[in-house]
Every structure is written in C-alpha cells, then in structure tokens.
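Field: COMPLEX_INPUT
Field: COMPONENT_COUNT = two
Field: RESIDUE_TOTAL = 228
Field: MODE = joint
Values follow.
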Amino acid sequence: AQSVAQPEDQVNVAEGNPLTVKCTYSVSGNPYLFWYVQYPNRGLQFLLKYITGDNLVKGSYGFEAEFNKSQTSFHLKKPSALVSDSALYFCAGTALSGYALNFGKGTSLLVTP
Amino acid sequence: EAQVTQNPRYLITVTGKKLTVTCSQNMNHEYMSWYRQDPGLGLRQIYYSMNVEVTDKGDVPEGYKVSRKEKRNFPLILESPSPNQTSLYFCASSLYQAGGYNEQFFGPGTRLTVL
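Field: COMPLEX_OUTPUT
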C-alpha cells in the first residue's frame, strides 16, 4: 500500500523567514511526488513535482522541494515567506507503476506580517 | 482557456434523491479523477479514469458511480445519496503518457450537502 503523510496540521512563520512544510511517503518502488496549494474557496493548484533526477525540485511562486530517498521525505521549502503564501498545502504521491494518487491530509500555512 | 469545469458548484439535496455532478475538461486529457475533501482527512480519491471506457476505484468508491463515454466528460453519480456523502468534491484531469505521470488540473469544486 502507498501513502503520504503530512505530520503537521499547521505551520506558522513570520513574513521574510524561511518556511518548511513536511511530507513523508511510503510508496513501493520509485515514487512520483507532488505538491499542491489550495487557496480559500478555490481548487488545488500544482506547485511542483518530483519524477526522477535532481533531488532539489524548483516550482512555482519561489517554492522548492527536496526529495530524500533515505528519509522517504519530500519537504516543501521557500527561502523567504510572504503573507500571500498563507494557504493549505497538500503533498501527493504515487508509484511509478500505479495510477491512483494519494494525498496527505494537508498542512495549513499561516504567514504573519 | 484551459480549464476543468464542474456543475453545479453548490447543491443541497435530500437522502435518496439521485444526483449527478458533471465534470468537463477542454485540454484533451486522458486521465480524469474525482476526489472528496473532508476536514482533517485531506483529499481522498473516489474514482479515476485512464481513458474513455476505462475507469477504476480509488480509496472511497462506495456509494458512487462514474462513467467515461467521452474523453472530455467524467460525471460523478450518486444513486442514493446519504448524509455521510456531504463533502466538497473536486474533479481533476491530466495528461497520461506511458511510463510518466503529470500534474493534475483541478476544477473549482462542488459543495454537496445531503440532508
């Protein structure tokens, strides 16, 4: 069985500080991993994905994520948070041979001025 | 404009009254999927479709039906809705390439309340 976990329900960070939103995965074989963001009353928007290759993946809005196979993690990062980054963030994953995408429960990010 | 559309956006109904939520995409995507979003549970996949006439169950398929007769449409059918199906529903689509997997484009959501 494959699964994705986001251990933090909420992350609070001050504007201008670096942010990290954590994600761990349990996927048999090589994983495809994604980050999505959901703003209030909106659908999910794609941020970035890891398929193969470089462990550091760059995405939209200045976000990046680091794939760590030994720790089975795919944490989302941004060097300097903005108030407008406040939203609900979802990590998602699937196995190379699979088609069903599993989402984490989401992490609410609050960036305060 | 490339998009996934869902209708209706909001629906209040009563237990047992059959309903259909439509989903349509204009990007010629092979893959389409339905999710439900519940507080504290994140998104859970209901059904997905790899292409026309090819569908499969996700994590929570009970009480739902889907069909994929045309590439652009993927309706979600609740034959006999129950209150535990009150949720926010999202349709999504993506390109599917053999050996690959692409980001999904999400619709705006349908908020369903079953009384």
